[in-house]
Amino acid sequence: MxxxxxxxxIEVTPAIRDYVTDKIKKVTRHFDSxxxxxxxxxxxxxxxxAEVNVHVSGKDIFVQSEDADxxxxxxxxxxKLDRQVVKHKEKNGDHHRGGKVVSAAE
Length: 106
Prior knowledge:
Blueprint: E1 2-8, H1 14-30, E2 34-44, E3 47-56, E4 59-67, H2 70-91
Parallel strand pairs: 1-2
Antiparallel strand pairs: 2-3, 3-4
Helix pairs in contact: 1-2
């Protein structure tokens, strides 16, 4: 898994980088086949914005979050991303489990 944290109009300090890394690890617990994660942190006037693009096998998941506090935006971002990854995992699961088996005699 490749994790890239970049800043747009903001300097990414080691503390912010560690915070994002710890939060993103929660997402990788749910889904093993995460290939690449790109996190972009930016500031627009008084709004702190966090965006993430996760490349998993077969799909790219994009989530963004805005808040007045950067750490709150990151927390909200991780919550949204977690829901999207779980949704993707359930969608790509085995669809034939628990289904009715139809035999040729019927």
